[in-house]
């Protein structure tokens, strides 16, 4: 099995339900098993800022799937949950991105690993540092990258939401 890191986000509808449902669906995929799930983070929108606040998380999974097959599988989860095509960085019910598979670098029309913009996004790095602090992106550990991004962030750019975290973890534990 290979470890992979994914990011999940939602800013439409019942965000906690979308995130918990996506995590359960990913854990149920053949050849995939959730191993760690971060807290839920309330985050300001990035890129397109005239929309509602997001809830973002990261998770680590063990998988037998190839990187491309894993990406296709998580995008199928999005589609099964009603994800519709929308404008770039626009509002969404659920968004799932494949971030990094340690030791794998690739660039295809479908997938680039590590995710090309993850290092500049606190809403990705903060939850990823929570579940994999010693994971390296280039020569930098996730916990060090998160600390640097937090120091440059505005207040409330990316804040742990304990209530949403508890709701999501309760759903995951009830399977």
Keywords:
175 residues, alpha+beta, Alpha-Beta Plaits, 6-stranded antiparallel beta sheet, 26% strand, globular
User: What's the CATH H-level homologous superfamily?
Assistant: 7,8-Dihydro-6-hydroxymethylpterin-pyrophosphokinase HPPK
- State the CATH architecture: 2-Layer Sandwich
Coarse shape: globular
User: How many domain units?
Assistant: 1
Mean pLDDT: 92
CATH topology: Alpha-Beta Plaits
Structural class: alpha+beta
Helical percentage? 25-40%
End-to-end C-alpha gap: 23 Å
**Quantity of strands, as a count:** 10
State the helix count: 5
Structure commentary:
This protein has a single domain (2-116, 159-168), classed as Alpha-Beta Plaits (2-Layer Sandwich). Strand 8 and strand 9 form a beta hairpin. The longest helix is centred in the first third of the chain and has 14 residues, at 15-28. It has helices spanning 15-28, 67-80, 122-131, 142-152, 162-173; strands at 2-10, 32-37, 41-43, 54-63, 95-100, 106-107, 112-113, 136-137, 140-141, 158-160. Helix content is 35%, strand content 26%. The protein has 175 residues and is α+β, with helices and mostly antiparallel strands. It contains 5 helices and 10 strands; from the N terminus they run E-H-E-E-E-H-E-E-E-H-E-E-H-E-H. Strands 1, 2, 3, 4, 5 and 10 form a 6-stranded antiparallel sheet that branches. A two-stranded antiparallel ribbon has the order 6-7. Helix 1 runs parallel beside helix 5 and helix 3 (122-131) runs antiparallel to helix 4 (142-152).
């Amino acid at each position: 099995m290979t470890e992979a890191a994914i990011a999940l986000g939602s800013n439409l509808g019942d965000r906690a339900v979308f995130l918990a449902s996506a995590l359960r669906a990913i854990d149920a995929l053949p050849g995939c098993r959730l191993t760690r799930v971060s807290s839920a983070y309330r985050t300001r929108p990035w890129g397109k800022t005239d929309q509602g606040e997001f809830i973002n998380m990261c998770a680590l999974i063990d998988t037998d799937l190839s990187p491309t097959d894993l990406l296709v599988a998580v995008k199928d989860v999005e589609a099964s949950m009603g994800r519709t095509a929308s404008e770039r960085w626009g509002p969404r019910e659920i968004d799932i991105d494949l971030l990094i598979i340690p030791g794998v670098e690739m660039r295809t029309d479908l997938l680039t690993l590590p995710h090309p913009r993850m290092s500049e996004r606190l809403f990705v790095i903060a939850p990823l540092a929570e579940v994999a602090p010693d994971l390296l992106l280039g020569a930098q550990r996730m916990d060090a990258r998160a600390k640097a991004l937090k120091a440059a962030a505005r207040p409330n750019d990316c804040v742990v939401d304990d209530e949403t975290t508890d709701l999501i973890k309760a759903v995951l534990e009830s399977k």
